[in-house]
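Example (one chain per record):
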Amino acid sequence: MPAWALSYRGFGIGLRVPERLPGLLRAGGRRLPRSSPDGVEIRPAPPVFARPRDPTDAGGSVLAYYGAGRERPLPEPGALAALPLERQVAATRWYHTIELPGGVVTPGAFDHRPVVPHYGIPDDLRGRRCLDAACSNGFWAFELERRGGEVVAVDVPTIADWDLPAGTPPLDARDPDALAAAAFAIAHRALGSRVELVRRNLYEMDPEDLGTFDLVHMADVLLHLRNPLDALRRLRGLVADGGSALIADVFDPALAGPVTRYSGGFRNVIWWTPSLDCLVQMVYDAGFGSVDVVTTYSIPGGAGWRAAMRARP
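Predicted structure:
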């Protein structure tokens, strides 16, 4: 009669069970065929709840979330720049909350300002070359610059470069990415910033043309990527000798072990929600030699928990 040993937080119990019981439990009480002499075991297939999904749902989700279905058209860049700063800010949609001159604060969907002191950015970045990958409106790029860094910011050229589910039809001409670009330009101009913006797909980031960086930053993007490990490997290739990466992304505290929840990109282009172990393991597997979790945080409207990690080659 086989023995089972169960333990939880240091407490254990040993059981002896009938030989057929484990198999019956796995089969939901149904009798299973015994293994054949060659070791092959056949089991009834369990229920499967996967189903086809409508790719148009994914496109509609993107338009609603990023505000592309706006009634007012976005002004031309020249006309936008001629408006007072408050009206420029009001003319577009903001992903990031950014403090601009004159007490103007952008109405961002996500306000990261309370997180900054806990995030792990070095106080003094003077003389250091920095990269903000997937910069959106530029909150983190401008923060790196404020600390003295020479900053390059990378973001996708168009909506076509997003990892949308297969079969998603072309989106409305009022491209959500055009709104992000307009917001970045407003903040860049208002702050008198020297951040260099490069339009590039993350999978195509290459040290041959971007160079390498003392600090590489990427936040809130892995969950939106079909192939997050490929992007992390690209990121690793941009870290200079002696440099480091600061990576922040979503994790699910209810998941244990190196596992992830798959969503497929059908809502708000969210593909994955990993456990913290899985998130850290992916960073290691991208080629980093050490990974330290600096902090975990949740912000209003942020739909879950993030971990900020410092990774070194």
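Caption: The chain has two domains: 1-32, 55-312.
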